[in-house]
Design goal:
Elements lengths: L1 H17 L5 H15 L4 H36 L1 H30 L4 H19 L3 H18 L4 H9 L4 H24 L26 H8 L1 H15 L4 H11 L1 H17 L6 H34 L2 H10 L5 H16 L2 H16 L6 H11 L9 H9 L4 H26 L4
Length: 437
């Protein structure tokens, strides 16, 4: 009955936003309250869950998304995006530019948290889309598939890192096996699948669109790349510092502070205000005006993401994940597949990859005590399952939909199926690798 209520609420959300044409944020709040009532959450608890869900999701994302939009708008307005697009097209050529962006997404996705990588890479995708008139979804999906895979498969991302500790897995082996599985998953869900999406014609978010500037007015190549990719550089340096000075608490503490996504984006914005703003002849007032316009463009995106957090929290507080996990844990099937299945079902019902991964780990851990399951492969199996079929209850779904200006149907056809392919290919890879290790 619980599962039917969850499915019914998700279908209602889809109907309200598509057939009913109701604003997604309002629809989320209505469905969140209804779900709480139907699932037996106390009346006072429903409002607390809604408020906590909105606060938690925006508390962790609002700085990253807002600063990312400001950075992307400045990168576009200064001509840095135009310069980056021209250089990448020169290196990879029009034929292989998609692979170039995908490789870039994979490399930067290892040190960067997913949300930071998303808001950082989307402006680069759009800069190529606008300049060379290429299909946005076809071009961008492989890069975002690469970011998604690193988020679900590879430490130091939150869920895989926590699973490594919980299962006492070897971090290095997990990374090694994870990269082996990530490459085919990204290729199949990215460049291969995206060939079927060339017909999706959209006008992406105009925040990152700008007029072509004369060559002499563009920032230099190094200035453009370093300014746009500074978060990657800071994250990489802090990771190296932690490894080198791991016995020095003061250094690791300071490096950890700098590695916080909100701090990284704040420092980046401070620097690019000078390198791409003041240095390029813009006044401080002009730069701040660019930032103000960027925030106006993404205000509704923030509200929708907040709404998705409300629904996720209501479902989580109702105990849905535990109930589903207990039912699935009673099945007599291969442990690696069971771990994947539990994570996948919770992901589809609740929408959060991290919640799905950590919940599945807690359920599957006791089952591993008397079995010979490879702990590294269990980390990857659960990680793959936690990416399964992202849809309307996942903030990532709405970020992709709103940034790329898509309808629900095309978002499911592109984003949701891409995530499903990643999850399934990851499972197949784990089961194959299990025969050899």
């Amino acid at each position: 009955m619980t599962l039917l209520i969850v499915v019914g609420c998700i279908l209602l959300l889809v109907l309200l936003t598509t057939w009913g044409k109701i604003n997604a944020f309002i629809a989320f709040l209505f469905v969140s309250i209804l779900a709480g009532l139907l699932l037996g959450v106390p009346l006072t608890g429903i409002t607390k869950s809604v408020q906590k869900g909105v606060g938690d999701i925006l508390g962790s994302l609002i700085i990253v998304i807002v600063f990312g939009a400001m950075l992307g708008k400045l990168v576009a307005a200064s001509g840095a995006a135009q310069k980056i697009a021209a250089v990448m097209m020169k290196i990879f050529g029009r034929k292989y530019i998609q692979w170039g962006l995908m490789t870039t997404g994979f490399i930067i996705g290892i040190p960067l948290f997913y949300n930071v990588g998303f808001v950082l890479m989307v402006p680069l995708i759009f800069s190529v889309v606008y300049k060379y008139k290429l299909p946005a979804v076809y071009l961008g999906l492989p890069m975002l598939a690469a970011l998604s895979v690193t988020h679900g498969f590879l430490p130091p991302h939150p869920s895989p890192a926590a699973l490594v500790l919980q299962f006492h897995a070897n971090m290095g082996l997990t990374m090694f096996y994870g990269i082996m599985l990530a490459i085919p998953a990204i290729i199949i869900a990215g460049p291969i699948y995206s060939k079927t999406l060339k017909g999706i014609v959209v006008v992406p978010l105009k925040t990152f669109q700008s007029d072509d500037l004369p060559e002499e007015q563009l920032p230099g190549t190094w200035n453009s790349f370093i300014s746009a990719l500074l978060p990657v550089i800071v994250m990489a340096l802090t990771t190296v510092c932690v490894l080198i000075f791991k016995d020095n608490p003061s250094v690791t503490s300071f490096a950890g502070f700098l590695a916080e996504p909100s701090i990284v984006m704040f420092l980046t914005l401070c620097l690019t205000t000078f390198t791409l703003g003041i240095k390029m002849g813009k006044s401080m007032k002009e730069v701040m005006s660019i930032y103000g316009d960027a925030v106006k463009d993404i205000a509704m995106i923030l509200l929708i993401i907040g709404g998705s957090g409300a629904l996720k929290q209501v479902l989580s507080d109702s105990g849905v994940s535990k109930e589903i996990g207990d039912v699935l844990a009673g099945l007599s099937i291969e442990p690696l597949f069971l771990g994947w299945l539990i994570a996948a079902v919770i992901r589809v019902c609740l929408g959060s990859a991290t919640v799905a991964g950590l919940t599945a780990a807690g359920i599957i851990a006791p089952l591993m005590i008397n079995s010979n399951v490879n702990p590294e492969l269990m980390v990857l199996s659960i990680g793959a399952g936690s990416l399964m079929f992202s849809h309307v209850n996942d903030p990532g779904f709405w970020m992709f939909k709103e940034y790329f200006n898509l309808g629900i149907k095309d978002t499911i056809r592109s984003w949701s199926i891409m995530e499903t392919l990643v999850a399934v290919v990851g499972l197949v890879g784990v089961l194959i690798l299990n025969q050899f290790v």
